[in-house]
Amino acid sequence: MYNQILEIACFNLESAIIAANSGADRIELCENYTEGGITPSEKLILEVRNKIQLPIHVIVRPRGGDFVYTSDEIDAMKKTIIFCREQNIDGVVFGCLTTNNQINVSVCEELVKLANPMHTVFHRAIDQCHDLFSEIQKLINIGFSGVLTSGGKQSALEGKNSIADLNKYFKSKLTIMPGGGIRSSNLADIINTTCCNEYHSAAITNGSIICNSEEIKELKKLIRKI
């Protein structure tokens, strides 16, 4: 294995700076930890872009809750994607579903095309789908670069066996990135089971909304052992 990536989810500028100084390889930028991450403000995107040299992927999620969006919400997502593209952001992270929890292919195709040449990652909305294999195949057909998943479970640790199967089957076609409750206490188990090349963590401890520098260093140390 090679080119192992540690992505840190950052909900504010302070976390982004800590992550960059503590060994993170990429930042997933969002706001509102309690909602699971929503679209950050343009102001925050610019602040992070100006202060951080790491690759940045921006969450494009107009609200918390489900992933079935109105036309107005999709328009807001398009606006964010265009802004990110114009500001030379490296990637965008989004996920749109239908009311029966399948990939909304037509909307995702439009957003992926709009995002080009940025990387496009489908987020953990995938874990709401009933058949991960058939839905991830749709992501490949649409042109997504990767997918963030907990294997259909509440956490990556619980879903590690499913993630391992997905990575074995799809790794040559798109990046399978485990995420959901990953911390230094469980990452070794997840790495050994899934054999993925990229891992996602908020690196938050003690109920804070600021990522923990020592936790990031421990996560990175575990990834280096691969």
What is the element layout, followed by pairings?
Layout (H helix, E strand, L loop, with lengths): L4 E6 L2 H9 L4 E4 L12 H10 L4 E4 L11 H16 L4 E4 L10 H11 L3 E4 L9 H11 L3 E4 L10 H11 L4 E4 L8 H8 L3 E4 L11 H12 L2
Parallel strand pairs: 1-2, 1-8, 2-3, 3-4, 4-5, 5-6, 6-7
Question: How would you describe the overall organization of this protein?
Answer:
Helix 3 (71-86) packs parallel to helix 4 (105-115). This protein has eight helices and eight strands; from the N terminus they run βαβαβαβαβαβαβαβα. The radius of gyration is 16 Å and the shape is globular. It is 39% helix and 15% strand. Strands 7-6-5-4-3-2-1-8 form an eight-stranded parallel β-sheet, with helices on one face. By secondary structure, it is an alpha/beta fold. The chain has a single domain, classed as TIM Barrel, CATH 3.20.20. Helix 5 (132-142) links the parallel strand 5 (119-122) and strand 6 (146-149).
